[in-house]
Design brief:
four-stranded antiparallel beta sheet, six-stranded mixed beta sheet, 29% helix, 383 residues, single chain, alpha+beta
């Protein structure tokens, strides 16, 4: 079987692995790594429509132990008619590979698998460990994926010394951004109650909209603090306003607002919730609010892991590396509870978009950087 990253990526794209369906994507990587002496463990969590297939593979039993983590699941393709190429065709046109998941993040998985296979063939005296943690539940609820695999790894003495996640971190070119942390994420659902009435007699009603406007004022400001040395400012975004009202001549009795807050280490869910509840109470008493936190801030401290990836990037590119904590959440938030973790993959400009694609040259360059990263990580156990 080929270990060329282009061929591997084409095979992966052809698997219609929209969360939580696998459609053979995990087997593409499992089969080629098993042929290169990796031991494989399929881990299935959940039942029915919530069932998720995950995969853990490991070569070696000694330290240092490096894990590559990622997800083979993808978001839906949307309207197929808007795509120039089939979203699950893996078409190569010119210098690009088209398909859903090309950059987020089947491309990085193909590059890492290729780099690992080539590296172990070139380093037969290697005595450390390399593993893969692959899930089919990153783009979805993220309940039966990485977090539960990590628990299994912990119970079975498989926790690595360090981990790299192949999320598409780069902004413009390969090597410009390494994610060393992420902000936390707090979701909120606010329901404001008024009094239903006829639009021609507004004085007989109480519009929940005017009350809502005052209640969400702090969220409309955008930034809630000035940020910190390691993190950008905490920011709030309104994501939905809905009444479920189809009538044009009725003032509704309630309005529902959904919002999200991405917060740095200056904040925490309890502090944000207390602040907002206090503000809501001052404006209006008749409301209901629910909060759900699905991530807390984390940052990987300077050390070997960041040094290794930075040195590998500098060997292969002329990029000025930004060690960043921006962006949304990823499964790195779970991994950070067990070991140091960074994120580094392809350029993310087209992720989740129509005509998502990866440049072939980027895919090959990423493979070379991963190869050098392995050199740096295992230099002491390959002599």
């Amino acid at each position: 079987m080929t270990s060329d990253p282009v061929d591997l990526l084409v095979k992966l794209i052809k698997c219609k692995s929209v969360t939580p369906n696998d459609d053979g994507a995990l087997a593409v990587i499992e089969n080629i790594l098993k042929k290169n002496n990796f031991k494989s463990q399929r881990l299935i969590f959940g039942t029915g429509k919530d069932k998720v297939e995950n995969l853990f593979l490991r070569l070696g039993s000694k330290r240092p132990h490096l894990c590559f983590a990622g997800h083979t699941d993808v978001v839906p393709a949307g309207d197929y008619n808007l795509w120039e190429h089939s979203p699950f065709g893996g078409d190569i046109k010119g210098k690009k590979i088209f398909g859903r998941g090309a950059v987020d993040m089947k491309g990085a998985i193909a590059s890492f698998a290729s780099a690992v296979i080539n590296w172990i063939k070139d380093n037969k005296k290697f005595t450390g460990s390399i593993s893969f943690l692959l899930t089919g539940d990153e783009e979805g609820p993220a309940i039966n994926g990485t977090s539960k695999v990590l628990k299994w790894m912990d119970e079975n003495n498989q926790i690595p010394d360090m981990c790299i996640v192949g999320e598409p971190t780069n902004k413009e070119e390969i090597g410009d951004t390494v994610k060393i942390g992420r902000r936390g994420s707090l979701n909120g659902k606010l329901v404001v109650y008024g009094k239903q009435g006829h639009v021609a007699y507004p004085y007989q009603a109480l519009s929940p909209f005017t009350i809502m406007q005052k209640m969400i004022e702090p969220l409309l400001k955008g930034e809630l603090d000035k940020g910190s040395k390691s993190f950008p400012p905490t920011n709030a975004s309104i994501t939905s306003i809905d009444t479920g009202n189809d009538a044009v001549n009725v003032i509704p009795s309630k309005v529902e607002v959904k919002f999200n807050i991405r917060f740095n280490e200056k904040q925490n869910p309890e502090k944000l919730e207390k602040f907002l509840r206090s503000h809501f109470d001052r404006v209006h008493k008749d409301y209901k609010v629910e909060f759900t936190c699905n991530a807390n801030p984390f940052i990987t401290k300077p050390g070997k892991l960041i040094n290794y990836i930075s040195e590998a990037i500098k060997l292969k590119t002329n990029s000025s590396i930004d060690l960043s904590t921006t962006g949304g959440t990823s499964d790195a938030r779970f991994i950070s509870l067990y070991c140091p973790v960074i994120e580094f993959g392809l350029v993310g400009k087209t992720m989740h978009q129509v005509n998502e694609h990866a440049l072939i040259k980027d895919l090959k360059l990423l493979t070379e950087i991963y190869y050098e990263f392995l050199n740096k990580t295992f230099i002491e156990v390959t002599k």
